[in-house]
Amino acid sequence: MQSGDLSFLDSVNASFDLAADALNLPNGLAHQIRTCNAVCEMKFGVELQGGYEIFTGWRATHSEHILPAKGGIRYAPFADQQEVEALAALMTYKCSIVNVPFAGSKGALCIDPKKYSLEELEHITRRFAQELDKRGLLGPGVNVPAPDMGTGQRMMSWIADEYQKLHPNEINARACVTGKPVHFGGVQGRIEATGRGVQYGIQEFFRHKDDVKNANLSGNLEGKHIIIQGLGNVGYHAAKFLEEEDGAIITAIIERDGALFNEKGLNVELIYQHKMEHGKLEGCTAGTFIKDGNKALELPCDILIPAAMEGVISKSNADRIQAKLIAEAANGPVTFDADKILLKKGVFIIPDSYLNAGGVTVSYFEWLKNLSHVRFGRMDRRFIEAQGAKIIKLIESGIDKPLDEVAKMELMKGPDEITLVRSGLEDTMCEAYQEIKEMHDSNPKIHDRRTAAYASAIRKIADIYDSMYL
Ligand code: NAD
Predict the structure, then answer these.
(1) H-helix or E-strand containing 319?
(2) Does one domain contain both 280 and 361?
(3) Residue 458 near residue 16, CB atoms below 8 Å
(4) 307 in ligand 1 pocket by Cβ < 6 Å?
């Protein structure tokens, strides 16, 4: 982010204030909702091969109006407390927006994971889990981490395993963390969930013709030109689904070392494989390589999807952005100041607090699966298939001829876990989009979707506080 813009935390708070001002809340309630309840800084030593090393980590619990509090753990060399607080606040609002019954939390460890072996990372992660547990910041009913930048499935299993060791009598121990591998209590579809949610959110935008018109767009996703920044977990899945399933044309992909551009469209899978093999985009012949990747944010396109990190669109470049729609897959990619410039230009922004909520939504499904100790679909799949077979029999006897085999298979297929997870996620993203739009359309003080999303969250949280203090 360029100097002169509000910090990430100040941006989140400024967006909150705009939304709270548009609502008629009891005196002081907005301040209570906005305030971060607790932040814990932990310093702990770990014995590694070269000797003892001290690590600094944080866990912020932004709110406790519902428990558990939920939010990822980030491993990054630039992690700091302010960023953790901003992300924890966003989690509170995000969960409320998508009607997931969690409060917001977030954690980070100041570390460059690439500098450590797998064994060292396991050792460090288990120590971090002990520190969190010791301070009451880990547990299925209190605080449930998940992966974020620099962390993944493997680390989540180490945390779950460590917690299980510390609490051998806790039957729901595995629900202390989400984003685990499926064989260790995870749920199908969690890895792709945030990218999938981004796809569902953009699809829902195109179902609302007035929104499409306001963004100076027309039609549907087919043939739309998209630029995506960040080919990591979120960016890769979003880009792949939009290209392969919706017929969108990905014209540019931006990574740390530069960008690839091809007006006719890039093959996302091919570029992802290149990045996995070489750790960079340079050298990939799928498009023209642009060394200054940030410049590619400013190329003409229909949709710009920042899916890398915060603050990439700031006062310094907002004026040059040519996209008609910005779909915020990353957390905080547009600063508060840039937001104002873009809105004045007529750019339609689908905000992060809504659009990247697919991860926490499917984490919620995983948590439910862990608490119920049963895979989704296990109880009813065969039953639904048997019902389908009966319906087919009735139809066939009514029309006096057999249905074609493909139609039969479709009708008889009972839902498996991945189908149910995708269906629950799609429903969540569609419902939340409609709630935000309704808030925007019905409140004359609200002029954009970010404010509407925050207002939708604040209204629901305020209702919970109201009923607590009846
Ligand atoms: P990731 O580490 O898997 O991927 C990030 C990608 O962005 C990497 O490929 C990295 O090389 C690239 N990148 C980093 N800085 C860049 C820059 N300046 N320019 C271009 N590319 C850059 O992380 P992720 O999990 O995909 O998360 C991306 C964003 O989405 C973050 O803001 C994160 O907080 C947010 N988010 C992630 C999830 C999730 O489920 N993973 C959920 C909600 C929000």
Answers:
(1) none
(2) yes
(3) yes
(4) yes
User: Does residue 54 carry a pLDDT above 70?
Assistant: yes
Q: Is 295 marked active-site?
A: no
Q: Give residue 9 CA to ligand 1 midpoint distance, Å.
A: 18
Question: Is residue 271 in some structural domain?
Answer: yes
Token pair, residue 213, equals: 């018109």
In a domain, 399, yes or no: no
Q: Does the Cβ of 86 fall within 6 Å of ligand 1?
A: no
Quote the pLDDT of residue 27.
86
308 lines ligand 1 (CB under 6 A): yes
Amino acid symbol at 342: L
List the CATH number of the domain containing 66: 3.40.50.10860
Q: Is residue 400 part of a domain?
A: no
User: Residue ranges of the alpha helices (H) in 148-192?
Assistant: 153-166
Q: Which residue's C-alpha comes closest to atom 10 of ligand 1? A: 230
Helix (H, G, I), strand (E, B) or coil at 273: helix
Average pLDDT, the chain: 95
Secondary structure element (H or E) that encloses residue 332, with its range = none
- Which pTM value belongs to this model? 0.94
Domains held by the chain: number: 2
| Strand locations in 368-466 (E) | none
